[in-house]
Prior knowledge:
Elements: E1 6-10, E2 15-21, E3 27-34, H1 38-44, E4 49-53, H2 58-66, E5 71-75, H3 77-80, H4 90-102, H5 114-145, H6 158-165, H7 174-207, H8 209-214, H9 222-231, H10 241-247, E6 252-254, E7 263-266, H11 272-292, H12 299-304, H13 309-330
Parallel strand pairs: 1-4, 4-5
Antiparallel strand pairs: 1-2, 2-3, 6-7
Amino acid sequence: MNEVSIIGLDLAKNVFQAHGARVDGSVAFRTKLTRAKLLDFFSSVPKCTVAMEACASAHHWAREIGRLGHEVRLIAPIYVKPFVKRQKNDMADAEAIAEAALRPTMRFVAVKSVEKQASAMIFKTRDLLVRQRTQTINALRGHMAEYGIVAANGPVHIQRLAETLDDPDGGLPADVIALCQMLFAHIALLNERIGSLDKELRDRSRRDDTAKRLMTIPGIGVICATAIEALAPPIESFQKGRDFSAWLGLTPKQNSSGGKTRLGSTSKMGQRDLRRLLISGAMTVVRWADRKGAPEGSWLARMLTRKPRMVVAVALANRIARIAWALIQKGGIYRVPGAVAA
């Protein structure tokens, strides 16, 4: 045990696999550990590097093992996969994790604090409730369409469907009316809970100086500003704004060889919730500029004359991400740049 330099730990619900390696990479031990004995094991081994995949429960175990004095490194699963030899099993996975962590150029995931994970849970819960509301509204529309009752798209138009239920001459069976009222009550409950989470996010944005500065950027509102604070890793881990936008998946995929650069579609890597929020905010700016007109000579005006709106929105989301990185890293607020001649 005294010769162990790094331990690769394959996480699970109840039975964990540990792979110990020496400085030269040779195997020191392989062992299985139950959940109850995991921390006792790491408290008994000498202080070393412990590597894990950044998957479910990884941040919890990283915090717990880190308190025992070990240096914990989290690796994205996609970077571990090339080191798996032949068969896929827990022993091979643990060895691959240790091998990947030994690479000098390996990229690691920052361990999240309890507070950071709690903040991120607000957005996950809100997204779940919004999806459930959309599912319920779609189900309600589908059921009522079977009886010839339709309404325009959008949650604001379902009130027309509710008015139809109250019409005594609507001709709907009593069972249909009772079930639809149940769905309407469920939608009302979801609206109340989503509104409560929105209020919590607004309160957080008022208390957070960084969120207030981010909201000076066109296309970033309350939800997006607080989401960047909660879901993004420490901004110091990115050397420049383009690294941040690449992590979000807002840069093109490359398939370059022989000195010839080939760029494809956006990579869609990184945090998809943040990427979706940034693209939605950018699309709002594009729609406004399409209706009211963008400032003459601006980047947005030139792009709208040459590219489709969705392409412009993704490119604008890329710019917004880089501006957000600069504001968090260097301070200050967003200032509208002067128009540039075309």
